Amino acid sequence: xxxxxxxxxxxxxxxxxxxxxxxxxxxxxxxxxxxxxxxxxxxxxxxxxxxxxxxxxxxxxxxxxxxxxxxxxxxxxxxxxxxxxxxxxxxxxxxxxxxxxxxxxxxxxxxxxxxxxxxxxxxxxxxxxxxxxxxxxxxxxxxxxxxxxxxxxxxxxxxxxxxxxxxxxxxxxxxxxxxxxxxxxxxxxxxxxxxxxxxxxxxxxxxxxxxxxxxxxxxxxxxxxxxxxxxxxxxxxxxxxxxxxxxxxxxxxxxxxxxxxxxxxxxxxxxxxxxxxxxxxxxxxxxxxxxxxxxxxxxxxxxxxxxxxxxxxxxxxxxxxxxxxxxxxxxxxxxxxxxxxxxxxxxxxxxxxxxxxxxxxxxxxxxxxxxxxxxxxxxxxxxxxxxxxxxxxxxxxxxxxxxxxxxxxxxxxxxxxxxxxxxxxxxxxxxxxxxxxxxxxxxxxxxxxxxxxxxxxxxxxxxxxxxxxxxxxxxxxxxxxxxxxxxxxxxxxxxxxxxxxxxxxxxxxxxxxxxxxxxxxxxxxxxxxxxxxxxxxxxxxxxxxxxxxxxxxxxxxxx
Length: 559
Description:
Elements: H1 12-21, H2 28-38, E1 43-46, H3 53-64, E2 74-77, H4 81-95, E3 102-105, H5 111-120, E4 124-127, H6 129-137, E5 148-151, H7 154-159, H8 163-171, E6 178-183, H9 188-197, E7 202-205, E8 217-222, H10 228-239, E9 244-247, H11 251-263, E10 268-271, H12 277-289, E11 294-297, E12 312-315, H13 322-329, E13 340-345, H14 350-360, E14 364-366, H15 372-393, H16 397-408, H17 414-430, H18 448-455, E15 460-463, E16 469-472, E17 481-486, H19 496-507, E18 517-519, E19 524-529, H20 533-540, E20 544-545, E21 548-549, E22 552-554
Parallel strand pairs: 1-6, 1-7, 2-4, 2-5, 3-4, 5-6, 8-13, 8-14, 9-11, 9-12, 10-11, 12-13
Antiparallel strand pairs: 15-16, 16-18, 17-19, 17-22, 18-19, 20-21
Helix pairs in contact: 2-3, 3-4, 6-8, 10-15, 18-19, 19-20
């Protein structure tokens, strides 16, 4: 039986925080370390980046702190500013349910800003040794109330020459404080420091298994969080996979993504730990036999997947653990077949990608997402290839006679008829309208143009009767305009940039093509070019703005 987070002695608040983070079950280092830390034992842990060590010390650390005490109660030392930021972000997410404040302090950031933050109070400080020493000397940081101190990547801090600083900092923490050392290696200097500062420490050790990366073509795309759904559809549409496995970090995101894909007409289903075994068996049976083409799953649920003909693995959410990445992409490229793996990475997740590349030595190449034009051309090419294959197969006599009969009774040419049939098939089977091929692809922009559109101050802002605000921006188009109704407004803290950003990011139309916006308390009106109105409604219906599910429809004409 595998260990669950519920078995480790964590409170309900932290168990909910774990679920929010998408952790389905604890990693080996978490299983070993968390109970000892909760008992108050000093720890020397050997674990590398990508094994879940941040949560291994972060969860019990947060469990032991008192949210009512606004003094600094915990100190986490990291060798670099990048790691300090990374650790502070992860611990901060885990701390939200307990309402505990986490503050990173490091060199390179204006120290005055840190003065103000420290003055407000932070219960957990995550910092580099040099900057922590600096604040101690300026008397802007007191360690007198610290009950738990952590050295993260202690061996690297020693290699960087921080030994004297670390010892000075630990000497200024209370003698009875709990101390935890985590290190990828265990050099003599670590053990000497442990002997001096730790009280009968528990030694926990995780040796990373040899990671054998399968021979799979690996690609990553840099996307913004709100672009991921559209990015997934672009990849699926341009590649035409017969079987694709899509990984999400949480059970909730599996359900939401599956629902979105099914709404868009994909043959998709989801798999996660909340499904009963008969349900899981039915889903897997459909995936094996081709009843579904896209299986959306969490890491734990995917362990039982043993399907040889998976064309591609798509990491919709990049995994927290390096080993999970290797396990995921190992689901494709089996039985001598070629496999492909695609990973979506946001700007804040690049450190995870660096860890994966660093520990697996894998070649993961950045690529550009296919544009709408690419998708249209690829789908059209596939359809024409199917037409050619059908012509070459023969047996068209009956259909030929029907065409000849049609042409005899009509002024159209055979070319007109072929073009009309192609148009009908593309609209019916692929959902490709004439305007799609000309649609602007916001996902391929560097982001600068869209940011200027979103952040630009609207030239006119007037207060209209009834308390509504009208934001007037010239619509840069000579075409007719459609006015759309959105069921979100100022009561939901929705601003013009939220509407512009969501529409541009989800649909791919440029922000500058969006016209006048009227925001009322509980709804809004947005003007868009009429030729893309149906596309906007189709994509935006069911999406979210400011956490609220969106419903969009053509607005009733003004009287």
